[in-house]
């Protein structure tokens, strides 16, 4: 690895603790299609490193208004035929007590996705 500054470098795009990875990117179809490749690439990296810095905890979308970003992402999952778990506001708040069910319409959990610990990945390499 060649790096002009410290590792991790706080000025790098990947310079803080986490990045999320998810399938859905709304209308950005071509971008979203590359995510499948990204999942495979990360798997290769974890195999090489002998350790994974990916927490496959899923990604929760929360729609507050009709047609908002979360809804567009969900519609993209529908178009591509990816499965997700849909929760009405009450169910979502029961499972995730930090959510206020009065402030959103519904939520959905896409099990494919989660958090990449970029800082830990850099320390390992
Ligand atoms: C705030 C923010 C949030 C983001 N959130 C997400 C997210 O949730 N999910 C997601 O997938 N993506 C996200 N991204 C995008 C993602 O973080 C970047 O696309 C990715 O980290 C880029 O990685 P990289 O290794 O190409 O570049 P960098 O992490 O920027 O690494 C490039 C490194 O090269 C070094 N360098 C540059 N020039 C030289 C030189 N001449 N000599 C030596 N070293 C040099 C730099 O110092 C830097 O450390 C986010 C970006 C930002 C800024």
User: Number of folding domains?
Assistant: 1
CATH class group: Alpha Beta
In round numbers, the mean pLDDT is 90
Query: What is the fold named in CATH at topology level?
Result: D-Amino Acid Oxidase, Chain A, domain 2
Largest sheet: 3 strands, antiparallel
Provide the CATH architecture. 2-Layer Sandwich
- Ranges where pLDDT stays below 50 over 5 or more residues in a row are none
Total helical elements: 4
Would you kindly provide a brief summary of this structure?
With 125 residues, the protein is an alpha+beta fold. The chain has a single domain (18-124), classed as D-Amino Acid Oxidase, subunit A, domain 2 (D-Amino Acid Oxidase, Chain A, domain 2), CATH 3.30.9. The protein has helices spanning 29-49, 69-80, 89-95, 118-124, and strands at 18-22, 54-55, 59-63, 85-88, 106-110, 113-117.
Q: Explain this structure to me?
A:
The chain is of the alpha+beta class. The protein has a single domain (18-124), classed as D-Amino Acid Oxidase, subunit A, domain 2 (D-Amino Acid Oxidase, Chain A, domain 2), CATH 3.30.9. Helices cover 38% and strands 21% of the residues. It has 4 helices and 6 strands; from the N terminus they run βαββαβαββα. It has helices at 29-49, 69-80, 89-95, 118-124, and strands spanning 18-22, 54-55, 59-63, 85-88, 106-110, 113-117. It has a 3-stranded antiparallel β-sheet with strand order 1-6-2. Strands 3-5-4 form a 3-stranded antiparallel β-sheet. The protein starts with 17 loop residues before the first strand and ends with a helix. Bound molecules: flavin-adenine dinucleotide. Flavin-adenine dinucleotide binds at residues 2-5, 9, 11-14, 19-21.
